[in-house]
Amino acid sequence: MHQARGEKHWIIPDGFIPPKSAPGDYVSHESICVLNCSSEEAQLQITIFFEDREPLENISVAVAGRRTYHIRTSSLSANGASIPVGVPYAIEVLSDIPIIVQYSRLDATQAANALMSVVAYPIK
Amino acid sequence: MHQARGEKHWIIPDGFIPPKSAPGDYVSHESICVLNCSSEEAQLQITIFFEDREPLENISVAVAGRRTYHIRTSSLSANGASIPVGVPYAIEVLSDIPIIVQYSRLDATQAANALMSVVAYPIK
Amino acid sequence: MHQARGEKHWIIPDGFIPPKSAPGDYVSHESICVLNCSSEEAQLQITIFFEDREPLENISVAVAGRRTYHIRTSSLSANGASIPVGVPYAIEVLSDIPIIVQYSRLDATQAANALMSVVAYPIK
Amino acid sequence: MHQARGEKHWIIPDGFIPPKSAPGDYVSHESICVLNCSSEEAQLQITIFFEDREPLENISVAVAGRRTYHIRTSSLSANGASIPVGVPYAIEVLSDIPIIVQYSRLDATQAANALMSVVAYPIK
Predict the structure, then answer these.
(1) How many domains does chain B contain in total?
(2) Organism's domain of life (chains A, B, C, D) (predicted)?
(3) pLDDT tens per residue, range A37-53
(4) pTM for the whole thing?
Protein backbone atom coordinates (compact mmCIF):
# COMPACT_ATOMS: atom_id res chain seq x y z
CA MET A 1 0.00 0.00 0.00
CA HIS A 2 1.30 3.45 -0.88
CA GLN A 3 0.83 6.34 1.53
CA ALA A 4 -1.14 9.50 0.67
CA ARG A 5 1.09 12.60 0.31
CA GLY A 6 0.50 16.34 0.29
CA GLU A 7 -2.47 18.20 1.75
CA LYS A 8 -6.29 17.92 1.76
CA HIS A 9 -7.09 21.59 1.03
CA TRP A 10 -5.76 23.70 -1.85
CA ILE A 11 -6.52 27.18 -3.22
CA ILE A 12 -6.00 28.76 -6.67
CA PRO A 13 -7.04 32.46 -6.62
CA ASP A 14 -6.56 33.17 -10.35
CA GLY A 15 -8.89 31.23 -12.60
CA PHE A 16 -9.98 32.42 -16.04
CA ILE A 17 -11.24 30.49 -19.07
CA PRO A 18 -10.19 32.41 -22.19
CA PRO A 19 -13.33 32.97 -24.27
CA LYS A 20 -11.83 32.15 -27.64
CA SER A 21 -9.12 30.22 -29.45
CA ALA A 22 -7.29 31.05 -32.64
CA PRO A 23 -7.11 28.29 -35.26
CA GLY A 24 -4.13 26.01 -34.55
CA ASP A 25 -2.85 23.08 -32.55
CA TYR A 26 -4.29 24.10 -29.22
CA VAL A 27 -7.63 25.22 -27.76
CA SER A 28 -7.52 27.66 -24.80
CA HIS A 29 -7.93 25.74 -21.58
CA GLU A 30 -7.08 25.48 -17.91
CA SER A 31 -6.27 22.35 -15.96
CA ILE A 32 -6.37 21.52 -12.26
CA CYS A 33 -3.61 18.89 -12.18
CA VAL A 34 -3.88 16.44 -9.28
CA LEU A 35 -1.49 13.72 -8.16
CA ASN A 36 -2.81 11.02 -5.86
CA CYS A 37 0.26 9.12 -4.54
CA SER A 38 -1.79 6.75 -2.39
CA SER A 39 -3.23 3.36 -3.34
CA GLU A 40 -6.77 4.56 -2.51
CA GLU A 41 -9.08 6.67 -4.66
CA ALA A 42 -9.33 10.35 -3.62
CA GLN A 43 -12.74 12.07 -3.44
CA LEU A 44 -12.50 15.78 -4.34
CA GLN A 45 -15.03 18.54 -3.66
CA ILE A 46 -14.38 21.66 -5.75
CA THR A 47 -15.85 25.13 -5.08
CA ILE A 48 -15.69 27.96 -7.64
CA PHE A 49 -15.75 31.56 -6.31
CA PHE A 50 -16.71 34.61 -8.39
CA GLU A 51 -16.42 38.40 -8.07
CA ASP A 52 -20.12 39.19 -8.23
CA ARG A 53 -22.23 36.13 -7.49
CA GLU A 54 -22.57 33.19 -5.10
CA PRO A 55 -20.02 30.36 -5.30
CA LEU A 56 -20.64 27.21 -7.34
CA GLU A 57 -20.34 24.50 -4.71
CA ASN A 58 -20.19 20.72 -4.33
CA ILE A 59 -18.55 19.76 -7.60
CA SER A 60 -17.38 16.16 -7.12
CA VAL A 61 -14.39 14.60 -8.87
CA ALA A 62 -12.65 11.27 -8.14
CA VAL A 63 -8.94 10.64 -8.73
CA ALA A 64 -7.89 6.98 -8.82
CA GLY A 65 -5.07 5.65 -6.60
CA ARG A 66 -1.51 5.96 -7.97
CA ARG A 67 -2.81 8.14 -10.82
CA THR A 68 -2.70 11.77 -11.93
CA TYR A 69 -5.75 13.55 -13.31
CA HIS A 70 -5.51 16.79 -15.28
CA ILE A 71 -9.04 18.17 -14.85
CA ARG A 72 -10.24 20.67 -17.45
CA THR A 73 -12.10 23.41 -15.57
CA SER A 74 -14.51 23.78 -18.49
CA SER A 75 -15.69 20.21 -17.81
CA LEU A 76 -16.76 20.98 -14.22
CA SER A 77 -20.43 21.43 -13.40
CA ALA A 78 -22.83 21.36 -10.44
CA ASN A 79 -26.61 21.14 -10.78
CA GLY A 80 -26.33 21.93 -14.47
CA ALA A 81 -24.24 25.09 -13.89
CA SER A 82 -20.68 25.35 -15.21
CA ILE A 83 -17.95 28.05 -15.16
CA PRO A 84 -18.66 30.90 -17.60
CA VAL A 85 -15.85 31.87 -19.98
CA GLY A 86 -14.12 35.27 -19.80
CA VAL A 87 -14.92 35.79 -16.10
CA PRO A 88 -12.42 36.03 -13.20
CA TYR A 89 -12.89 33.29 -10.64
CA ALA A 90 -11.03 31.31 -7.94
CA ILE A 91 -10.84 27.60 -7.11
CA GLU A 92 -10.94 25.68 -3.81
CA VAL A 93 -10.13 21.96 -3.82
CA LEU A 94 -10.95 19.77 -0.82
CA SER A 95 -9.96 16.10 -0.78
CA ASP A 96 -10.70 13.31 1.68
CA ILE A 97 -7.04 12.19 1.55
CA PRO A 98 -3.82 14.18 0.94
CA ILE A 99 -3.07 15.03 -2.72
CA ILE A 100 -0.90 17.57 -4.57
CA VAL A 101 -2.48 20.22 -6.85
CA GLN A 102 -1.00 22.38 -9.64
CA TYR A 103 -2.92 24.76 -11.92
CA SER A 104 -1.95 25.57 -15.51
CA ARG A 105 -3.49 27.78 -18.20
CA LEU A 106 -2.90 27.69 -21.93
CA ASP A 107 -4.21 30.84 -23.56
CA ALA A 108 -4.63 30.24 -27.29
CA THR A 109 -6.65 33.41 -27.89
CA GLN A 110 -4.01 34.29 -30.41
CA ALA A 111 -2.12 32.16 -32.86
CA ALA A 112 0.83 32.68 -30.52
CA ASN A 113 -0.07 30.78 -27.35
CA ALA A 114 0.84 31.77 -23.80
CA LEU A 115 1.31 29.47 -20.79
CA MET A 116 1.25 29.97 -17.02
CA SER A 117 1.40 27.56 -14.10
CA VAL A 118 1.46 27.61 -10.30
CA VAL A 119 1.48 25.00 -7.58
CA ALA A 120 -1.78 25.70 -5.70
CA TYR A 121 -1.59 27.15 -2.18
CA PRO A 122 -1.93 24.45 0.49
CA ILE A 123 -4.06 25.22 3.57
CA LYS A 124 -2.50 23.32 6.45
CA MET B 1 -20.39 31.20 8.75
CA HIS B 2 -17.34 30.26 6.73
CA GLN B 3 -13.87 30.47 8.26
CA ALA B 4 -11.11 32.73 6.92
CA ARG B 5 -8.24 30.78 5.27
CA GLY B 6 -4.67 31.58 4.28
CA GLU B 7 -2.46 34.34 5.68
CA LYS B 8 -2.74 38.06 6.45
CA HIS B 9 0.56 39.19 4.88
CA TRP B 10 1.73 38.50 1.32
CA ILE B 11 4.67 39.67 -0.82
CA ILE B 12 5.18 39.85 -4.62
CA PRO B 13 8.73 41.08 -5.43
CA ASP B 14 8.33 41.29 -9.24
CA GLY B 15 5.82 43.88 -10.38
CA PHE B 16 5.95 45.60 -13.77
CA ILE B 17 3.20 47.23 -15.83
CA PRO B 18 4.15 46.88 -19.50
CA PRO B 19 4.06 50.35 -21.05
CA LYS B 20 2.31 49.43 -24.25
CA SER B 21 -0.04 46.95 -25.90
CA ALA B 22 -0.16 45.76 -29.47
CA PRO B 23 -3.58 45.86 -31.18
CA GLY B 24 -5.52 42.69 -30.41
CA ASP B 25 -7.77 40.91 -27.93
CA TYR B 26 -5.84 41.81 -24.81
CA VAL B 27 -4.35 44.89 -23.16
CA SER B 28 -1.16 44.41 -21.11
CA HIS B 29 -2.06 44.16 -17.43
CA GLU B 30 -1.25 42.70 -14.06
CA SER B 31 -3.66 41.37 -11.47
CA ILE B 32 -3.38 40.78 -7.75
CA CYS B 33 -5.86 37.90 -7.41
CA VAL B 34 -7.36 37.53 -3.94
CA LEU B 35 -9.63 34.83 -2.55
CA ASN B 36 -11.57 35.58 0.63
CA CYS B 37 -12.98 32.23 1.85
CA SER B 38 -14.64 33.74 4.93
CA SER B 39 -18.16 35.12 5.25
CA GLU B 40 -16.77 38.54 6.34
CA GLU B 41 -15.39 41.29 4.13
CA ALA B 42 -11.57 41.57 4.11
CA GLN B 43 -9.88 44.99 4.40
CA LEU B 44 -6.58 45.10 2.47
CA GLN B 45 -3.75 47.62 2.78
CA ILE B 46 -1.37 47.54 -0.19
CA THR B 47 2.14 49.04 -0.30
CA ILE B 48 4.10 49.50 -3.53
CA PHE B 49 7.94 49.53 -3.31
CA PHE B 50 10.25 50.99 -5.96
CA GLU B 51 13.96 50.86 -6.79
CA ASP B 52 14.68 54.57 -6.49
CA ARG B 53 11.95 56.35 -4.52
CA GLU B 54 9.84 56.11 -1.39
CA PRO B 55 7.07 53.48 -1.24
CA LEU B 56 3.47 54.27 -2.14
CA GLU B 57 1.63 53.38 1.06
CA ASN B 58 -1.87 52.95 2.47
CA ILE B 59 -3.74 51.84 -0.63
CA SER B 60 -7.05 50.41 0.64
CA VAL B 61 -9.04 47.70 -1.11
CA ALA B 62 -12.01 45.67 0.20
CA VAL B 63 -12.78 42.08 -0.84
CA ALA B 64 -16.30 40.86 -0.07
CA GLY B 65 -16.92 37.63 1.85
CA ARG B 66 -17.02 34.37 -0.19
CA ARG B 67 -15.76 36.27 -3.23
CA THR B 68 -12.60 36.58 -5.32
CA TYR B 69 -11.31 39.92 -6.56
CA HIS B 70 -8.77 40.19 -9.39
CA ILE B 71 -7.34 43.68 -8.73
CA ARG B 72 -5.72 45.44 -11.68
CA THR B 73 -2.55 47.11 -10.36
CA SER B 74 -3.06 49.98 -12.78
CA SER B 75 -6.27 50.82 -10.88
CA LEU B 76 -4.48 51.30 -7.53
CA SER B 77 -3.82 54.81 -6.22
CA ALA B 78 -3.04 56.64 -2.98
CA ASN B 79 -3.33 60.39 -2.55
CA GLY B 80 -3.66 60.81 -6.30
CA ALA B 81 -0.47 58.83 -7.03
CA SER B 82 -0.61 55.58 -9.01
CA ILE B 83 2.00 53.02 -10.23
CA PRO B 84 4.00 54.31 -13.20
CA VAL B 85 4.26 52.01 -16.24
CA GLY B 86 7.56 50.50 -17.35
CA VAL B 87 9.14 50.65 -13.88
CA PRO B 88 10.22 47.69 -11.67
CA TYR B 89 8.32 47.56 -8.39
CA ALA B 90 7.23 45.16 -5.62
CA ILE B 91 3.92 44.62 -3.81
CA GLU B 92 3.06 44.04 -0.15
CA VAL B 93 -0.51 43.04 0.76
CA LEU B 94 -1.74 43.19 4.35
CA SER B 95 -5.24 42.01 5.26
CA ASP B 96 -7.20 42.15 8.51
CA ILE B 97 -8.29 38.52 8.03
CA PRO B 98 -6.56 35.58 6.30
CA ILE B 99 -6.80 35.52 2.49
CA ILE B 100 -4.90 33.86 -0.37
CA VAL B 101 -3.03 35.94 -2.99
CA GLN B 102 -1.78 35.10 -6.49
CA TYR B 103 -0.17 37.50 -8.98
CA SER B 104 -0.43 37.22 -12.77
CA ARG B 105 0.88 39.33 -15.64
CA LEU B 106 -0.29 39.40 -19.23
CA ASP B 107 2.26 41.13 -21.43
CA ALA B 108 0.59 42.17 -24.69
CA THR B 109 3.45 44.43 -25.79
CA GLN B 110 3.56 42.31 -28.88
CA ALA B 111 0.82 40.79 -30.93
CA ALA B 112 2.02 37.50 -29.41
CA ASN B 113 1.10 37.71 -25.72
CA ALA B 114 3.09 36.27 -22.82
CA LEU B 115 1.76 35.17 -19.42
CA MET B 116 3.34 34.60 -16.02
CA SER B 117 1.88 33.80 -12.61
CA VAL B 118 3.05 33.09 -9.05
CA VAL B 119 1.34 32.45 -5.75
CA ALA B 120 2.54 35.38 -3.59
CA TYR B 121 4.97 34.65 -0.74
CA PRO B 122 3.15 34.37 2.61
CA ILE B 123 4.77 35.98 5.67
CA LYS B 124 3.80 33.83 8.66
CA MET C 1 32.33 20.26 3.05
CA HIS C 2 29.11 21.96 2.02
CA GLN C 3 25.83 20.97 3.65
CA ALA C 4 22.86 19.51 1.72
CA ARG C 5 19.90 21.92 1.48
CA GLY C 6 16.23 21.56 0.63
CA GLU C 7 14.10 18.42 0.83
CA LYS C 8 14.36 14.75 -0.22
CA HIS C 9 10.89 14.39 -1.76
CA TRP C 10 9.36 16.62 -4.45
CA ILE C 11 6.17 16.47 -6.56
CA ILE C 12 5.24 18.04 -9.94
CA PRO C 13 1.59 17.24 -10.82
CA ASP C 14 1.57 18.80 -14.32
CA GLY C 15 3.89 17.09 -16.78
CA PHE C 16 3.33 17.11 -20.55
CA ILE C 17 5.78 16.67 -23.42
CA PRO C 18 4.47 18.66 -26.40
CA PRO C 19 4.27 16.28 -29.36
CA LYS C 20 5.70 18.62 -31.97
CA SER C 21 7.95 21.62 -32.55
CA ALA C 22 7.72 24.33 -35.16
CA PRO C 23 10.93 25.12 -37.08
CA GLY C 24 13.04 27.64 -35.15
CA ASP C 25 15.56 28.11 -32.37
CA TYR C 26 13.95 25.83 -29.85
CA VAL C 27 12.57 22.30 -29.64
CA SER C 28 9.62 21.72 -27.26
CA HIS C 29 10.94 20.26 -24.02
CA GLU C 30 10.52 20.03 -20.28
CA SER C 31 13.25 20.07 -17.65
CA ILE C 32 13.39 18.88 -14.06
CA CYS C 33 15.96 21.35 -12.72
CA VAL C 34 17.84 20.12 -9.66
CA LEU C 35 20.33 21.95 -7.43
CA ASN C 36 22.56 19.88 -5.18
CA CYS C 37 24.20 22.33 -2.73
CA SER C 38 26.14 19.62 -0.89
CA SER C 39 29.63 18.33 -1.62
CA GLU C 40 28.29 14.77 -2.07
CA GLU C 41 26.59 13.28 -5.13
CA ALA C 42 22.78 12.97 -4.86
CA GLN C 43 21.05 9.76 -5.98
CA LEU C 44 17.56 10.44 -7.39
CA GLN C 45 14.72 7.98 -7.96
CA ILE C 46 12.04 9.35 -10.27
CA THR C 47 8.49 7.97 -10.67
CA ILE C 48 6.17 8.99 -13.52
CA PHE C 49 2.40 8.76 -12.91
CA PHE C 50 -0.23 8.61 -15.67
CA GLU C 51 -4.00 9.01 -15.94
CA ASP C 52 -4.78 5.57 -17.30
CA ARG C 53 -1.92 3.17 -16.68
CA GLU C 54 0.54 1.98 -14.02
CA PRO C 55 3.39 4.33 -12.98
CA LEU C 56 6.85 4.13 -14.54
CA GLU C 57 9.04 3.52 -11.51
CA ASN C 58 12.69 3.36 -10.47
CA ILE C 59 14.24 5.81 -12.91
CA SER C 60 17.70 6.59 -11.48
CA VAL C 61 19.56 9.86 -12.01
CA ALA C 62 22.72 11.13 -10.25
CA VAL C 63 23.44 14.82 -9.60
CA ALA C 64 27.05 15.64 -8.75
CA GLY C 65 27.98 17.63 -5.63
CA ARG C 66 27.91 21.45 -5.93
CA ARG C 67 26.28 21.13 -9.34
CA THR C 68 22.93 21.75 -10.99
CA TYR C 69 21.43 19.33 -13.48
CA HIS C 70 18.58 20.30 -15.82
CA ILE C 71 17.15 16.87 -16.69
CA ARG C 72 15.14 16.61 -19.92
CA THR C 73 12.11 14.45 -19.16
CA SER C 74 12.27 13.01 -22.67
CA SER C 75 15.65 11.47 -21.74
CA LEU C 76 14.23 9.47 -18.82
CA SER C 77 13.62 5.75 -19.18
CA ALA C 78 13.13 2.60 -17.08
CA ASN C 79 13.39 -0.94 -18.46
CA GLY C 80 13.30 0.44 -22.00
CA ALA C 81 10.10 2.46 -21.40
CA SER C 82 10.11 6.25 -21.65
CA ILE C 83 7.45 8.99 -21.27
CA PRO C 84 5.09 9.16 -24.26
CA VAL C 85 4.57 12.59 -25.86
CA GLY C 86 1.20 14.36 -25.77
CA VAL C 87 0.01 12.59 -22.62
CA PRO C 88 -0.75 14.18 -19.20
CA TYR C 89 1.50 12.83 -16.46
CA ALA C 90 2.96 13.74 -13.03
CA ILE C 91 6.46 13.46 -11.56
CA GLU C 92 7.74 12.32 -8.15
CA VAL C 93 11.40 12.89 -7.29
CA LEU C 94 13.01 11.13 -4.32
CA SER C 95 16.62 11.87 -3.37
CA ASP C 96 18.93 10.29 -0.78
CA ILE C 97 20.04 13.78 0.36
CA PRO C 98 18.21 17.15 0.37
CA ILE C 99 18.04 18.95 -2.99
CA ILE C 100 15.87 21.70 -4.55
CA VAL C 101 13.68 20.98 -7.61
CA GLN C 102 12.07 23.30 -10.17
CA TYR C 103 10.15 22.26 -13.29
CA SER C 104 10.01 24.26 -16.54
CA ARG C 105 8.34 23.67 -19.89
CA LEU C 106 9.09 25.30 -23.21
CA ASP C 107 6.28 24.70 -25.66
CA ALA C 108 7.54 25.31 -29.19
CA THR C 109 4.52 23.74 -30.87
CA GLN C 110 4.14 27.02 -32.65
CA ALA C 111 6.70 29.41 -34.05
CA ALA C 112 5.76 31.60 -31.07
CA ASN C 113 7.06 29.74 -28.03
CA ALA C 114 5.43 29.64 -24.59
CA LEU C 115 7.16 29.11 -21.22
CA MET C 116 5.97 27.99 -17.79
CA SER C 117 7.81 27.17 -14.57
CA VAL C 118 7.06 26.12 -10.98
CA VAL C 119 9.13 25.24 -7.97
CA ALA C 120 8.11 21.63 -7.27
CA TYR C 121 6.03 20.89 -4.15
CA PRO C 122 8.20 19.64 -1.27
CA ILE C 123 6.88 16.77 0.87
CA LYS C 124 8.22 17.32 4.40
CA MET D 1 11.97 51.46 11.82
CA HIS D 2 10.47 48.75 9.63
CA GLN D 3 11.13 45.09 10.38
CA ALA D 4 12.92 42.73 7.97
CA ARG D 5 10.57 40.10 6.46
CA GLY D 6 11.06 36.80 4.64
CA GLU D 7 14.11 34.54 4.75
CA LYS D 8 17.91 34.88 4.48
CA HIS D 9 18.53 31.98 2.09
CA TRP D 10 16.83 31.41 -1.28
CA ILE D 11 17.35 28.97 -4.17
CA ILE D 12 16.42 29.14 -7.89
CA PRO D 13 17.36 25.85 -9.64
CA ASP D 14 16.47 26.91 -13.21
CA GLY D 15 18.62 29.74 -14.56
CA PHE D 16 19.26 30.28 -18.27
CA ILE D 17 20.21 33.42 -20.18
CA PRO D 18 18.81 33.11 -23.72
CA PRO D 19 21.69 33.65 -26.15
CA LYS D 20 19.86 35.88 -28.58
CA SER D 21 17.02 38.36 -29.01
CA ALA D 22 14.82 39.03 -32.00
CA PRO D 23 14.42 42.69 -33.02
CA GLY D 24 11.61 44.29 -31.03
CA ASP D 25 10.64 45.94 -27.77
CA TYR D 26 12.40 43.56 -25.44
CA VAL D 27 15.84 42.00 -25.04
CA SER D 28 15.98 38.48 -23.55
CA HIS D 29 16.82 38.71 -19.87
CA GLU D 30 16.38 37.25 -16.42
CA SER D 31 15.86 39.11 -13.18
CA ILE D 32 16.38 38.14 -9.55
CA CYS D 33 13.71 40.35 -7.96
CA VAL D 34 14.36 41.21 -4.32
CA LEU D 35 12.18 43.04 -1.82
CA ASN D 36 13.81 44.43 1.31
CA CYS D 37 10.96 45.43 3.67
CA SER D 38 13.31 46.61 6.44
CA SER D 39 14.71 50.09 6.98
CA GLU D 40 18.29 48.74 6.79
CA GLU D 41 20.30 47.91 3.67
CA ALA D 42 20.55 44.17 2.87
CA GLN D 43 23.90 42.66 1.87
CA LEU D 44 23.47 39.76 -0.59
CA GLN D 45 25.99 37.07 -1.53
CA ILE D 46 25.05 35.24 -4.72
CA THR D 47 26.48 31.89 -5.89
CA ILE D 48 25.97 30.56 -9.42
CA PHE D 49 26.07 26.75 -9.91
CA PHE D 50 26.72 25.01 -13.25
CA GLU D 51 26.36 21.51 -14.67
CA ASP D 52 29.99 20.96 -15.58
CA ARG D 53 32.25 23.39 -13.73
CA GLU D 54 32.95 24.91 -10.33
CA PRO D 55 30.46 27.48 -8.94
CA LEU D 56 30.95 31.21 -9.37
CA GLU D 57 31.01 32.41 -5.76
CA ASN D 58 30.98 35.58 -3.68
CA ILE D 59 29.02 37.88 -5.95
CA SER D 60 28.01 40.84 -3.74
CA VAL D 61 24.90 42.95 -4.25
CA ALA D 62 23.34 45.53 -1.90
CA VAL D 63 19.60 46.25 -1.71
CA ALA D 64 18.64 49.52 0.00
CA GLY D 65 16.13 49.62 2.86
CA ARG D 66 12.41 49.86 1.88
CA ARG D 67 13.34 49.25 -1.74
CA THR D 68 13.03 46.54 -4.37
CA TYR D 69 15.87 45.68 -6.74
CA HIS D 70 15.32 43.69 -9.93
CA ILE D 71 18.84 42.37 -10.57
CA ARG D 72 19.68 41.39 -14.15
CA THR D 73 21.66 38.15 -13.96
CA SER D 74 23.71 39.21 -16.97
CA SER D 75 25.06 42.10 -14.83
CA LEU D 76 26.50 39.78 -12.15
CA SER D 77 30.24 39.11 -12.04
CA ALA D 78 32.92 37.87 -9.65
CA ASN D 79 36.66 38.32 -10.27
CA GLY D 80 35.95 39.31 -13.86
CA ALA D 81 33.85 36.19 -14.56
CA SER D 82 30.17 36.48 -15.46
CA ILE D 83 27.39 33.97 -16.35
CA PRO D 84 27.75 32.57 -19.88
CA VAL D 85 24.68 32.74 -22.11
CA GLY D 86 22.90 29.59 -23.33
CA VAL D 87 24.07 27.44 -20.40
CA PRO D 88 21.88 25.84 -17.67
CA TYR D 89 22.72 27.12 -14.21
CA ALA D 90 21.22 27.59 -10.72
CA ILE D 91 21.23 30.49 -8.27
CA GLU D 92 21.73 30.68 -4.49
CA VAL D 93 21.03 33.98 -2.72
CA LEU D 94 22.23 34.57 0.85
CA SER D 95 21.33 37.78 2.68
CA ASP D 96 22.41 39.14 6.06
CA ILE D 97 18.79 40.09 6.85
CA PRO D 98 15.48 38.53 5.74
CA ILE D 99 14.30 39.43 2.21
CA ILE D 100 11.88 37.96 -0.36
CA VAL D 101 13.13 36.70 -3.74
CA GLN D 102 11.31 36.02 -7.03
CA TYR D 103 12.89 35.02 -10.34
CA SER D 104 11.52 35.91 -13.79
CA ARG D 105 12.71 35.23 -17.32
CA LEU D 106 11.72 37.01 -20.51
CA ASP D 107 12.75 34.98 -23.54
CA ALA D 108 12.80 37.24 -26.61
CA THR D 109 14.64 34.72 -28.79
CA GLN D 110 11.73 35.03 -31.13
CA ALA D 111 9.66 38.01 -32.13
CA ALA D 112 6.96 36.40 -29.97
CA ASN D 113 8.23 36.68 -26.40
CA ALA D 114 7.70 34.14 -23.62
CA LEU D 115 7.61 34.80 -19.86
CA MET D 116 8.07 32.63 -16.79
CA SER D 117 8.30 33.42 -13.08
CA VAL D 118 8.66 31.61 -9.74
CA VAL D 119 8.99 32.69 -6.14
CA ALA D 120 12.42 31.31 -5.16
CA TYR D 121 12.57 28.38 -2.71
CA PRO D 122 13.27 29.56 0.85
CA ILE D 123 15.71 27.53 2.98
CA LYS D 124 14.50 27.84 6.58
Answers:
(1) 1
(2) Bacteria
(3) 999 999 999 999 999 99
(4) 0.96
